[in-house]
Amino acid sequence: MTYGVFLKKKNKILLIGASGTLGSALKKNYYFKNMEKPTKNKLNIIYRKKIKDYLDKEFQIVINCAAISKVRVCEKNKKLAKKVNILGVKNLVNEIINYEKRTKKKVLLIHLSSDAVYPYNRGNNKEISSLSPYNFYGQTKLKSEKLVKKLNRYIIIRTRFFDKKKLRFKDAAIDIFSSMIEVEELVKNIIFLIEIKYNGVINVGGKKKSDYNCIKKFNKKILKTTSKEILKKLDYQIAIDASLNISRLKYLKKRNEKI
């Protein structure tokens, strides 16, 4: 099967959080060319009335990229992080539930979560692994996941991504590991999950690599550092090994290649 060329069925798609890194990448992909992508001023998930007004336009798919995602901001302003990452998602979920009751029509919510819901140092985390957020950002993401699971149709994507065109790091750690994925690859995986009508939680990422080895592919001038040096500058916990087990995603792709 070929993914990302066209929609088999014309689903109306609503993107929330269109100005961020992932939202911007989604907008550039031809697959989503007819997607509605309101600005934050027009649709902010902290306001339920605005969510209701948009859902009444009868979208079949809602992609939620709206979040306070910078760990430092979440730690410094927990009230704001809670307002957007938890209460905002609660508003969205409740309005989808109300819409489905009102219209008898189903909505698929694609919700972006994070590898920060897993422990900071275990690695090779599976979707069924125990969860233990190590900072406030991860806590908000785990609570938002629990809210999304109230829906009948959802895809919760646990991931960590970056934009190869906007790498501002001067150095990267040789002993911090993750399954970071380039944002354009993440978009392709989102398309794949939509087309196979996946439902549930799924890890999306690449091979386990150190931050340094991941970034140096796109920035040859990146300097080496260590987790110890990074942690000296921080007053909150970061992951040392947040790598993901992506066997479920690999299985789904292999199975669908045969169709």
Per-chain topology:
Blueprint: E1 13-16, H1 21-28, H2 48-55, E2 61-64, H3 71-76, H4 78-103, E3 108-112, H5 136-148, E4 154-158, E5 161-162, E6 171-173, E7 177-178, E8 181-182, H6 183-195, E9 200-203, E10 209-210, H7 211-215, E11 223-225, H8 227-232, H9 247-257
Parallel strand pairs: 1-2, 2-3, 3-4, 4-9, 5-8, 6-11
Antiparallel strand pairs: 7-10
Description:
The protein is of the alpha/beta class and 259 residues long. The protein has a single domain (13-164, 180-205, 244-251), classed as NAD(P)-binding Rossmann-like Domain (Rossmann fold), CATH 3.40.50. Helix content is 37%, strand content 14%. The protein has nine helices and eleven strands. The chain has helices at residues 21-28, 48-55, 71-76, 78-103, 136-148, 183-195, 211-215, 227-232, 247-257, and strands spanning 13-16, 61-64, 108-112, 154-158, 161-162, 171-173, 177-178, 181-182, 200-203, 209-210, 223-225. The strands form four sheets. It has a five-stranded parallel β-sheet with strand order 1-2-3-4-9, with no helix packed on it. A two-stranded parallel sheet has the order 5-8. The chain has a two-stranded parallel ribbon with strand order 6-11. β3 (108-112), α5 (136-148) and β4 (154-158) form a beta-alpha-beta unit. The relative contact order is 0.15. The model is unreliable at 1-8 (pLDDT under 50).
